[in-house]
Amino acid sequence: MSATAPPIARHFRQILIWPLRLMPLRSGDQIQRHPEALAAIRENNPWREQRDEFTGSPADFHERHYREFVTFLPHVQRFLYGQGRSSSSQRGYGESPIRVFRRHDIARVRLGCEDGTVLDLQVQHIDLYFFYDVDVVILAMEVHADDLPLPRVQELMFRFGRAFPAKWREDGRAAQCMASVQWIGHDGSVLAESDYADRDAYLRHAWEHRASRIGRHWEYLLHPMVPHHSEAVGSIRYRQLEYHRLPKMTFLSFDDPFALSREDFIRLGQATQPDNGQPLPYSDEVMAEFERASCYDRFWGPSRRSDNASTRVVCTGPSMVMVGRHGLSGYSDLQNGLLAEFRHQYFLIGLIAHFHRASLLMMMDRLVVAVSLLDADDVDSRRRFKRGIRQTMEIFLRFNHRYWFGEVSKQSMAKDLFDMWSRNLGNETLYNELRAEVLDMDNYLEADDSRRQNETLLRLTVVTIFGLIGTIVTGFLGMNIFDGPPATLAGKIGSVLAVAAPTLLVTFYTLKKSSALSEFFDAVSDDTLTRRQKLKAFARIWRRRPGGLRRRDDTHGNLRSRG
Length: 563
Hints:
- By secondary structure, this protein is α+β, with helices and mostly antiparallel strands.
- The protein is 45% helix and 17% strand.
- The chain has 19 helices and 14 strands.
- It has helices at 34-40, 63-70, 74-81, 150-159, 199-209, 216-222, 262-270, 284-294, 329-332, 338-343, 345-372, 379-402, 412-425, 427-477, 489-512, 514-525, 531-539, 547-550, 558-562; strands at residues 8-22, 48-50, 98-103, 106-112, 118-131, 134-149, 180-185, 190-193, 226-227, 237-240, 248-254, 295-296, 312-315, 319-325.
- Strand 5 (118-131) and strand 6 form a beta hairpin.
- Helix 7 crosses helix 8, helix 11 (345-372) runs antiparallel to helix 12 and helix 11 (345-372) packs parallel to helix 13 (412-425).
- The longest helix has 51 residues, at 427-477.
- The two termini are 63 Å apart.
- Mean pLDDT is 83; it is low at 85-93 and 548-563.
């Protein structure tokens, strides 16, 4: 890149994609209906449900929408658009399981840059994506600007879109963030501003809640949803799932995209700090591996310098960047070029990839929380643990059959980008890890249920054996063992109570000693033991056992692991 005349991005467009986990509205419910809860809030709620072109007027459905629709395979079409107007009787099956809410009160984003420059980005739209039966919401924010120097683009990609600061400088300013972020309304007023410099507030929140505090401007943007770890009042609560740098998609058009160097593409793809005149510290092997894993060069031919081979896509997973020549109708056209596909088809592909990852992280988070709250000595805690694990297993099963796509399109670029996106996000690895954990939990629950059933059967067997002795005796001698004079009613009742009370005591005492009695029965049936050993086994029935041994089954072997 020339030091005197850096390339100018004639058009800069960025879509921030922020997955968040939604906390349950009501504990115990399998399906949480967060979209309905958001729509029911009338006071100070800027979000309104957005109807797509398939549910609106036929006059609003154009060829661009049709090209977007046919990009995807049928099972993905049903996920994105539903199954048609005649099948829309049940949410999540007839209609699309996606519900979109949009706010219209923010017109611009005003950014304070590192050198003191103030830059306004125009807001195209700000949406919330909810998914049926999955407690995940994705914030999508699209902004754009024109004629930005490449170093400014690199600064925006590096500093803009951070949920909270990672550290602060000695002068108190937040490092690696924009100096300020403001949401600007249509009348030019400042609706909310970042508070990155409030170091004490972030430190105190982390100390108090063991969770990071998100920026004040992001809290305003997501309102009336509120952070889970906060004192704010709100029924819809969310928590972080990912790193504090928001995933993003960036579209760039240059007069000469071939003027960008190898290091420029690495800085853009990894969203690193702007070029400061120093070369990157990476070796040639690292750069070659980056290009192999993250660069899509099907339509990129720098040696030919041809217009039809001037588009390059870099996809690292958290960041996707599309670079091409400005002015080409096939690239920069807002309705029919790659810019239109970037905003629609490729955005949906990125949305699916990030939705997959967020859903898997959400279910892993549920498993971690369930295990962390388990108290093996508390019966109620074990019951809640089992219920939580089974609910998560059922959610995973439904997610696996409804939302997990290995392929979304047969079109070469769409297919390849989805594969690259999913691979670099690590979705397949995360899926296999979660599946293994779910299977382990399922095996544990089955083993625990079988153990408890075996214990119950064992105790009932011991009680039955001792009851069999009494049954045989009374059956042989008859009900009236003692021949006495006819008794009065009170005498008969007294006789019944006199027999029932010791019978209950003997029964409960037998239950209490059933484990020891079962061991004695095993000793009696073992021909390898001597009479002396069998008598010792009989004496052990009334011997007091150590507390740790009595609790061995309840703690599921934890005593051995602690020892």
